[in-house]
Amino acid sequence: MSGTAGGRRRARTELDDVVAQRLRGAGQRVTAARTALVDVLARAKRPLTIPELQRRSPGLATSSAYRNLGVLEEVGVVHRIVTNGDHARYELAEDLTEHHHHLICSVCGSVSDFTVAPKLERDLAVALAQAAHARDFRIQAHRLDLVGVCAGCA
C-alpha cells in the first residue's frame, strides 16, 4: 500500500471491490459485519483470534463472527490458521495482501508473519517445485509455517 492517505483509500476501495465480487460471485451478500471483519483484518499486523477481532470491532457477536468468517473463508477472502492455542487465527487471504510465512508458537498458539529475501523465496520455490515434481504434484501456492517457541514463552 502507498504511504499516502489517498493511496491507502485507493487500495482499500480495491480490496472492498474484490471482496464484494467474491461474495456476490458465491451468491453471498456484502454485509456490515463482513465489511467490519475485512476492515479489521486489513489493518492488523498479524493474524487475529475471534476475541481479538471482537475487541477491535465492538458489537460483533461471537456467533456472527464465526458465521461470517466461515463465509469469508469459503469465498477466498480470509485464511484460517489453526494452532494448538485456544483459538484459530484469521487473516486476509494472501492474494489480497502479500506473500508471507508464519511463526507459530507451540506453547501459546501465537502467530506472527514474516517474509524472506526475494532470492531466498525464489530458491525455496525452486526446491518446493522439485519436490512436488518428484511426486507428480502441481503446486498452486505454498505456505511455510515454522512451529517453535516464541520469545514470550521461551
Structural write-up:
- It is a single chain.
- With 154 residues, the protein is an alpha+beta fold.
- It has two domains: 1-97, Winged helix-like DNA-binding domain superfamily/Winged helix DNA-binding domain (Arc Repressor Mutant, subunit A, Orthogonal Bundle), CATH 1.10.10; 99-154, 2-Layer Sandwich (Dna Ligase, domain 1), CATH 3.30.1490.190.
- Helix content is 45%, strand content 14%.
- It is built from five helices and five strands, in the order ααααββββαβ.
- It has helices at residues 5-25, 32-43, 50-56, 62-74, 118-134; strands at 78-81, 89-92, 101-105, 111-114, 145-148.
- The protein has a three-stranded mixed beta sheet, with no helix packed on it. Strands 1-2 form a two-stranded antiparallel sheet.
- 16% of the residues are buried.
- The mean pLDDT is 90.
Total helical segments: 5
Could you give the order of strands across the largest sheet?
4-3-5
CA distance, first residue to last residue:
34 Å
β-strand number: 5
* Computed structural class: alpha+beta
| CATH classification class of the largest domain | Mainly Alpha
Q: What is the CATH topology classification name of the largest domain?
A: Arc Repressor Mutant, subunit A
Shape estimate: globular
CATH homologous superfamily caption of the largest domain? Winged helix-like DNA-binding domain superfamily/Winged helix DNA-binding domain
